[in-house]
Each structure stands twice: as C-alpha cells, then as structure tokens.
C-alpha cells in the first residue's frame, strides 16, 4: 500500500460506538496506513539515529469493554517492545494527529534520562522550535507549546516521580493540508524526528 495521507474519515472513527466496531474500523482504515508509513520511514529513522528501528502498531489487545480514544504506531530500537524504551510515535486522537519522541511511565530509567536532559537544558531549549509541544501524560490530549512550558520543572518531575512521563513533538489538526498529502506528511515526519533525534541520542547514550 502506498501512503496517501489521512482523511477526516480516519478521525471520525473515534466517534464509532462499541469496542469491536471501533477496532474493526481502526484495523481496516488506520492500521494499513501505519504499516505503509512504517515501510516508508523506518529506514530514514534508523539512519538518523544510528539504530535499527522496528515498527510497532498498537493492537489494544488488553481492552475488553471501552473502545480506544486514540491509536498509534511506534518506532523503537527494540524489536520485542517499545514501552520500556525511548521511542518515536505517530498517532491519532479524534481532533489531532501527533508525532512524539516519547518517554512513558513503563521506562525503568527515566530518572537518568531526565537528569541528562536537565544537564543540557539550554542546548535543548535552543534546538527545539517554539511551535513544538510537550505532553506529560500520553493518555490525555493535553499538550503545551514549548514556549509556554517550564521545561526544567517538567523534567524535574520526570526525575522525581516514578509515574511521570515526557513526550515532545508536534500536533496537527485534521484539516491540516500536510495530513492529506502522503509525501508531504512523510517529509514532515522525517523533519520532525530529525529535529528530535539529538534528544533521542542523549537518552540512549
């Protein structure tokens, strides 16, 4: 499958009632696009990071009742799983698409990574554009612009709170023309992850 972009219909999937019904739509419409994106981007991200990158597509297998409010794919250097490692994500909520470099609560060495980031705080602030956003909880839509985020406070919390999370990247509204143009989207994703790669390299160093 050639990736041709996302449409409004993809975002409307999250208004479908019922676990089985919504999951059927995700499997039919969104996961093939994730697979195509993975085929296009994994080599590029591997080259950027110097790590062999494996594609993981969320299956939501543990859900038994409530349908997922978002869905995503991940690129990670670990073939068996991504949640315990720094990883790149692309995913959808009903009202936006996200591209993240993600450090979520399952990671066993978040504290050390946060300390490394704090030690290089000024360099990070200079290297990440103001229009990038930060989330402190991957289960919520909330994200704050870099320019409005107290980065030192956020990273100190990650260092001190076991369940704290740190995700940094970009959000795109469903009507953004980039999402509807497959090649433009892939180029934007490459550029976004290239910008975030120095942080990734710090965190796996």
Describe the fold and architecture:
The protein has six helices and seven strands; from the N terminus they run ααββββααββαβα. It is of the alpha+beta class. The chain has a single domain (8-204), classed as BirA Bifunctional Protein, domain 2. The longest helix is centred in the N-terminal third of the chain and has 31 residues, at 19-49. The model has no long low-confidence stretch (mean pLDDT 95).
Helix and strand topology:
Elements: H1 8-12, H2 19-49, E1 54-57, E2 71-76, E3 87-92, E4 97-103, H3 110-119, H4 121-127, E5 133-135, E6 144-145, H5 151-160, E7 166-172, H6 182-204
Antiparallel strand pairs: 1-2, 2-3, 3-4, 4-7, 5-6, 5-7
CATH superfamily: Protein of unknown function DUF1054
Cα-to-Cα separation, first versus last residue:
35 Å
Taking the sheet with the most strands, its summary is:
7 strands, antiparallel
Sum up the overall morphology in one term: globular
CATH architecture: 2-Layer Sandwich
Counting structural domains, the number is 1
Structural class: alpha+beta
DSSP helical segment count: 6
Low-confidence stretches: none
Précis, in short:
With 205 residues, the chain is of the alpha+beta class.
Characteristics:
205 residues, alpha+beta, 6 helices, globular
């Amino acid at each position: 499958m050639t990736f041709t972009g996302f449409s409004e219909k993809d975002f409307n999937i999250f208004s479908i009632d019922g676990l089985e019904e919504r999951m059927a739509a995700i499997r039919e419409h969104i996961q093939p696009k994730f697979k195509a994106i993975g085929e296009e981007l994994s080599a590029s991200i591997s080259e950027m990071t110097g790590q062999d990158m494996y594609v993981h597509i969320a299956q939501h297998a543990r859900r038994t009742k409530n349908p997922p409010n978002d869905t995503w794919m991940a690129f990670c250097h670990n073939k068996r799983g991504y949640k315990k490692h720094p990883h790149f994500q692309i995913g959808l909520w009903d009202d936006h698409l996200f591209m993240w470099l993600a450090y979520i609560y399952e990671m066993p060495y978040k504290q050390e990574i946060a300390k490394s980031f704090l030690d290089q705080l000024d360099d990070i602030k200079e290297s990440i554009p103001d229009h990038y956003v930060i989330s402190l909880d991957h289960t919520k839509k909330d994200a704050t612009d870099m320019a409005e985020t107290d980065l030192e406070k956020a990273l100190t919390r990650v260092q001190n709170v076991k369940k704290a999370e740190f995700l940094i990247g970009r959000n795109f509204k469903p009507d953004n023309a980039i999402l509807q143009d497959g090649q433009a989207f892939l180029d934007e994703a490459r550029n976004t992850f290239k910008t975030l790669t120095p942080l990734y390299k710090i965190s796996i160093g």
